[in-house]
Amino acid sequence: MAITTSNTESPLSQGALLTPGEVAVLFRVDPKTVTRWAQAGKLSAVRTLGGHRRFHEAEVRQLLQGVPQQRVGE
User: Fold this and answer.
1) Is 56 inside a domain boundary?
2) Number of domains in the chain
3) Sorted alphabetically, which InterPro entries does this protein's record hold (predicted)?
4) Is residue 7 part of a domain?
5) Rounded to two decimals, what is the model's pTM?
């Protein structure tokens, strides 16, 4: 008996997911700020079964490239 699998990928299998706290560390902001960004539509979020937000790492990294870096000593 052969077992077949589907070739369709779920949205969650497209890459690593980050918590609001992990995103906040990358952007050096408070986790509540990340939540506000998601509510404002500035950052797309996936909801877990428990209702928590998770963010696609690839999207976060892409947005992070557009953030100006702070110089040391300023």
Assistant:
1) yes
2) 1
3) BldC-like, DNA-bd_dom_put_sf, HTH_17, SinI_DNA-bd
4) no
5) 0.71
